[in-house]
Amino acid sequence: xVQVVESGGGFVQPGGSLTLSCVVSGLDFSRYSIDWFRQTPxxxxxxxxxxxxxxxxxxxxxxxxxxxxISRNNAANTVxxxxxxxxxxxxxxxxxKAGVSYWGEGTQVTDSS
Length: 113
Prior knowledge:
Blueprint: E1 3-7, E2 10-12, E3 18-25, E4 34-39, E5 46-51, E6 58-60, E7 68-73, E8 78-83, E9 92-98, E10 102-103, E11 107-111
Parallel strand pairs: 2-11
Antiparallel strand pairs: 1-3, 3-8, 4-5, 4-9, 5-6, 7-8, 9-10, 9-11
């Protein structure tokens, strides 16, 4: 059974930093691209960042480019999303997706100002 588990969310002030983690089990992790999405109340999920199978290629939505960094450790079945210079509008539930089908339950990031 495939499990995708996000962690690392919390309260953060504008300008602060937070690192999210996504641990995937139950599949051959190194054969799956990983993406992070986010969703605010009343809005659909929007794609934020992605990483290819071996972590060489990374992709970012314009609204996070230069502030967020995605990376992966295939030995640990983990992808991290480092978020710097956070803005109020980054408040959302952040979801990790493995491949095209496997989603986690999300982790909440909230502005604490």
